[in-house]
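User: Some background: our group keeps a shared notebook of sequences we're curious about, and every so often someone picks one and asks for a predicted structure to add to the entry. Today it's my turn. The entry only has the sequence so far, pasted here. Could you supply the structure so I can complete it?
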Amino acid sequence: MTAAPLRPGDQLASTVCGTRVVVIRVPADRIPVLACGASPMVAATTVTAASAVGGGAAVTLLGKRYVDATDSVEVLCTAPGSGALSCDGEPMTIKAAKALPASD
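Assistant: Of course. Here's the predicted structure to add to the notebook entry:
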């Protein structure tokens, strides 16, 4: 079974905790595998709130953008959770904010 290609706007949910993300950017030439807590993420419509339970401190933070090591896959966290995000087996990191130009 091959994974379905991701598109900007796709909503994904973790199967091991309450983490939910929206895909912001994904390259057209590859199909990345996004995971949370080492378990592949699935379409958010297939996960009910009762099945996505998990305790512990939030590792994936609400409102933060996460990018892969090559900065080509970007997701936005819409619900925090205790699982760490990864893309193709590599950990995703919080995207750094862009510096604003000086106004003086």
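Suggested note for the entry: The chain has a mean pLDDT of 87. The chain is about 0% helix and 30% strand.
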